[in-house]
Specification:
Strand content: under 5%
Order of helices and strands: HHHHHHHHHHH
Radius of gyration: 20 Å
C-alpha cells in the first residue's frame, strides 16, 4: 500500500470516528463533541499533508472548508465543557476547594445543558452533522491520494514547520491575543501531523523538538484565559464569584504566559 493510500485510510478512520463520537448518548455527548472536533482537525491535518497537489485541487479545498465549518459549528458546545475542565484543574491544583469547585461547576452545567439542548433542537441527535461526516468519508476516497508520496509529505511537513516558526516569531515578546491564538492553531496542526507520521513513517525523523512542552504550557494559559473571559462578563457566574475567580486566576494566567514565553524561547532557539 502506497503512502497516499495509508494517509487516506487514516483520514477515513478519523472521519468515521468523528461521526461515531457525535452519536454518543446522554452525558457522554459532551466528551463526544470534544473527541469529534479532535478527529475533524486530524482529518484536516492529514489533508494538508497532501502538499501543493492537494492545495491546488478544488475538491480538497471544498472538503477542507466543509470540515472547518463543521468544527466551528461545535465550538460553543466545546467551550462550555472546557470551562468546566478549567475549574476542575483549579481544584486539582488546590487553588479552589472541591466543594467550591462543585458549586461553580453547577453554574457551568446549566450553560452546558442549555447550549446542548439548543443545538439538538436544531439538529436532533446531530443527524445532519453525522450525515455530513459520512459524506466527507465518501469524498475522501475520491481525492488524488495516489499523487501523495514521501516527497510531497516531507514538503508539507516543512511548510507546517515554517508556518509555526513564523507564528513563534510573531508571538514572542508580545501580549497579542490573536498572535498567540494563531501560534496555538499552528502548533496543534503540526503536532497532529507529526503524530500521524510517527505511525505511517516511523523512520522518517519528522519530529520537532520542544513542541510538546510548548503545547502543554500554552494549554495551561488557555485554561486560565477562558476562565478570565467568563469573569469579565455576566452570564455564567454571579458577580461575587466572578470577582473572586478573577483575583485568583489573573496571577496564574500571567505566570502561565511567562512559562509559555520561556518555552517559546526554547522552541525558537
Amino acid at each position: 500500500m502506497g503512502l497516499g493510500a495509508v494517509l487516506q485510510a487514516e483520514a477515513g478512520h478519523e472521519a468515521e470516528r468523528a461521526a461515531r463520537q457525535l452519536a454518543r448518548p446522554g452525558e457522554e455527548r459532551h466528551d463526544g463533541i470534544h473527541q469529534a472536533r479532535k478527529s475533524i482537525r486530524r482529518v484536516r491535518a492529514l489533508l494538508a499533508l497532501g502538499g501543493e497537489t492537494f492545495a491546488a485541487t478544488p475538491a480538497v479545498r471544498r472538503l477542507d472548508a466543509a470540515l472547518r465549518s463543521l468544527c466551528r459549528g461545535l465550538s460553543s458546545l466545546r467551550d462550555a465543557d472546557a470551562l468546566r475542565d478549567a475549574l476542575l484543574h483549579l481544584s486539582r491544583d488546590a487553588v479552589i476547594g472541591p466543594i467550591e469547585c462543585e458549586r461553580l461547576c453547577a453554574f457551568v452545567a446549566v450553560l452546558r445543558a442549555r447550549r446542548l439542548a439548543a443545538a439538538l433542537a436544531r439538529d436532533p441527535d446531530f443527524a445532519r452533522r453525522r450525515a455530513r461526516l459520512q459524506e466527507a468519508q465518501t469524498r475522501l476516497v475520491l481525492l488524488p491520494w495516489q499523487s501523495v508520496g514521501e516527497a510531497e509529505v516531507r514538503a508539507a511537513h516543512a511548510y507546517s514547520t515554517k508556518r509555526l516558526r513564523k507564528a513563534l516569531k510573531q508571538a514572542r515578546g508580545k501580549a497579542d491575543v490573536e498572535a498567540w491564538h494563531t501560534l496555538r492553531r499552528r502548533l496543534r496542526r503540526l503536532r497532529q501531523q507529526e503524530s500521524a507520521l510517527a505511525r505511517v513513517m516511523p523512520d522518517a525523523g519528522l519530529a520537532t523538538p520542544g513542541v510538546a512542552d510548548l503545547a502543554e504550557r500554552m494549554g495551561t494559559a488557555q485554561d486560565h484565559a477562558l476562565l478570565l473571559a467568563h469573569c469579565r462578563r455576566s452570564g455564567v457566574f454571579p458577580a461575587r464569584d466572578r470577582a473572586t475567580l478573577r483575583r485568583l486566576v489573573e496571577p496564574l494566567y500571567l505566570d502561565a504566559l511567562d512559562h509559555a514565553a520561556g518555552a517559546l524561547e526554547a522552541a525558537s532557539a
